[in-house]
Amino acid sequence: MQKIKAALLGYGTVGQGIQEVIHQYQERFRLLLGKEVEIAAVLVQNPAKQRDLPENVLVTTDFEEIITLPDLNVVLEAIVGEEPALTYLRRSLNKGIHVITANKMMFARHARELLETARENKVHIGFEATTAGGTPIIRTIDQLLQVNRVEKVEAILNGTSNYILTAMNDRFIDFDTALTEAQEKGYAEADPTHDIDGTDAFNKLMILSQLIYGEQPDWLNVRKTGINSLTEADIQHAKQENKKYKHIGVIKKEGNTIIAEVSPVLLSSTHPLHHIDGVDNALAITSDIVGTITLTGPGAGKLPTASAMVEDLVQIFQKEHAEFYEKISEKHAAV
């Protein structure tokens, strides 16, 4: 049986999750694609570290060994930071290799360029995992809301900040206590700055803007406010009015201007995001025909993120299969 040959860039939590899912669900790939998926190589920082990988998998610190692999079909990138991830993805796309990324910081800054590079090289780039983990927001907007015009998106895009606000609301604890608890449970990094100040949600909001409107607002004009200034008194006063603070990203277009903001927002009990608690993410998408729909799901973690990337992989190769037979049909029609 033919195989789809894949390489993993990064073997941290997400990379391990991808490998586990691909190893466990080969039968589903065979049914969906008529092929198995093979992890042929993994790019790592420390080659001496013990890893539970098959012996035939190339483990290397040198991207050249990966990009020169014969018949490489797809690169799945799960590296932290803008570089060297951007360079690796540029080179992969320019060589005609499909790309799937979970790198929100890098993709927020370079989405336009990478999407254009993919188009020029007639390959695909999957980025579902950059926005809301296992919640299929990209696929929903891209495939299911084609006739609908998206007017506004309101979203909880960071599980760490949502966990902290939920803990403060439900258990009458202060911000610092809730943050420490989130770190102890593994929901917050040792340095949680980008989660609590809105940077992480901002990056995801810019990716959504690129997808929905084909452009992003001027970053300097996007107001970004964190949650660390909220006090127990603020939370409890809201609760007395049957309201909750949520860290919300909003994107909408007014005339030719894209308006975006990330800030703590006081939501009434009738708002679709009011009841989204814990580490979940959610998006309320308002469009001109269907009205408002809400998507909810896990925003981060090994398996939700791996799930999003593997779903992208299946979609890409289903598209490739359809495009191949479309070309065959056109060739026969011409004859």
Brief account:
This protein is an alpha/beta fold and 335 residues long. Helix content is 43%, strand content 23%.
Radius of gyration: 21 Å
Average pLDDT, to the nearest integer? Answer: 92
Instruction: Write down the CATH topology of the largest domain.
Output: Rossmann fold
H-E string: EHHEEHEHEHEHEHHHHEHEEEEH
Q: What is the makeup of the main sheet?
A: 6 strands, parallel
Helix fraction, binned, reads 40-55%
Distance between the termini: 31 Å
Q: Pairing-aware structural class of the strands and helices?
A: alpha/beta
Instruction: State which percent range the strand residues make up.
Output: 15-25%
Task: Write out the CATH superfamily name of the largest domain.
Answer: NAD(P)-binding Rossmann-like Domain
Q: List the domain count as a whole number.
A: 2
What is the strand tally? 12
CATH domain class of the largest domain: Alpha Beta
Give me the number of helical elements: 12
Sheet with the most strands: spatial strand order? 3-2-1-4-5-6
EC number: 1.1.1.3
Pfam family, one: NAD_binding_3
Keywords: Amino-acid biosynthesis, Methionine biosynthesis, NADP, Oxidoreductase, Threonine biosynthesis
Protein name: Homoserine dehydrogenase
What does this structure look like?
By secondary structure, this protein is of the alpha/beta class. The protein has two domains: 3-132 and 302-334, NAD(P)-binding Rossmann-like Domain (Rossmann fold, 3-Layer(aba) Sandwich); 137-298, Dihydrodipicolinate Reductase, domain 2. 43% of the residues lie in helices and 23% in strands. A six-stranded parallel β-sheet has the order 3-2-1-4-5-6, with helices on both faces. α1 crosses α12 and α5 (104-120) runs parallel beside α10 (199-213). It starts with a strand and ends with a helix. Mean pLDDT is 92; it is low at 324-335. Residues 10-128 form the Aspartate/homoserine dehydrogenase NAD-binding domain.
